[in-house]
What does this fold into?
Amino acid sequence: MATPKTVAFHTLGCKLNFSETSAISRQFVEAGYGVEKFEEGADIYVINTCSVTEQADSKCRYVVRSALKKSPDAKVVIIGCYAQLKPKEISEIPGVDLVLGASEKFQVLDFVDGISKSTGKAEVHATEVHHANSFEQAFSFGDRTRSFLKVQDGCDYKCAFCTIPNARGNSRSNTIENVVKDAQKVAELGLREIVLTGVNIGDFGKQPYLAANGSTRFRRKEYFSGLITALDEQVPVERFRISSIEPNLCTEEIIQTVSRSEKFLPHFHMPLQSGSDTILKLMRRRYKTELYKDRIDFIKLLMPSCCIGVDVIVGFPGETEAHFQETFDFLESLDVSYLHVFTYSERENTAAWDMEGKVPVSERRRRNRILRELSDKKRSAFYRAHLGETRPVLFEQSKQEGMMTGYTDNYIKVVLPMDSELINLSRQVQLIEIDASGHVRGELVEVSVS
It folds into this structure.
């Protein structure tokens, strides 16, 4: 009997990529493959790439080299957003054997057995992105206490800095019925928390149909507010979180539903990108700062202890020092909990590529440092405001020896001495103090919530 082939995976980028890698991994398992850890070597490596920053190429090359150091004869397959955007460039990376685009990545098993170890350019299967017009279900399982559940894919927005519409195609979604079924499967597997993920999840509800001329079109059949209501009512899981949601799509109805729910946690992550209306217009964002502030104020009115994270980009073309100061002042005034700060990087085939007013890279980095310092202050203030409280914490393994970690319902990271019996369980924890690493030390209390 032949030894089963083995496969290993490496994922770059977002929660959506993690959900899709997990789904593809299960395809390999069902086909009889053994799944190995990346560092242990395998017959096949599947690398799921990201395209958000200009480091996509160097990161991809580094992971390919790392894989071949472990298994020099392994076949290397590249999928994901970078594979869709730059298939030719990837095909020329030494050691890469197969490149699959957005429409082909879920058919990886149809291609992988037919490739031989490359001596030159890799085999490429990457059709135009408009062919990516179906929704592929995915959720992660096996390496976390939570699952990333894909509910939406693609994006119809045309933000000036973003490559994702070119990498993933039109906005399209699963149905509420199918998402509920997937979430129920996750609950049956014993995971305690589900994170709803997608490219633009607030745009949930658009589904493909065949037009009279034979082309694929998309129309809205359902809404995100209906999805979270159905999940709240029908799925026996302890926790739901909503991943990043656009402020113009984070409606009062959605906020109210979360505020009333015992399952949807008080945690929102809303991209702002700039605190200057002038720069927001250049970025082709679909809101102004006034709307963003209204959303924050409404969340805090209904959920005063809610954690709110913010994405912001510094150094966008045309951003003067005055515009940056507007952003700083606006963020400083908001009752938000942390920032994810991105330094603008030029991306081909985006509207911003040819814009005037390029900001020197050194200045972009300076502005990044300033906002990261503001983020540290915001996070510390948010943590301090909740010291002394008792909140539910879902525990998981920590990289720190002898310790376990977990997040409260409102996304405060807590560390406690390891108790292996508590991993993947929720317990009430009193928040005691902030340690040198910026995490909160806690103490277990007697009352259990699970």
Notes: The longest helix spans residues 361-385. The domain at 390-448 is CATH 2.40.50 (OB fold (Dihydrolipoamide Acetyltransferase, E2P)). The two ends are 46 Å apart (CA to CA).
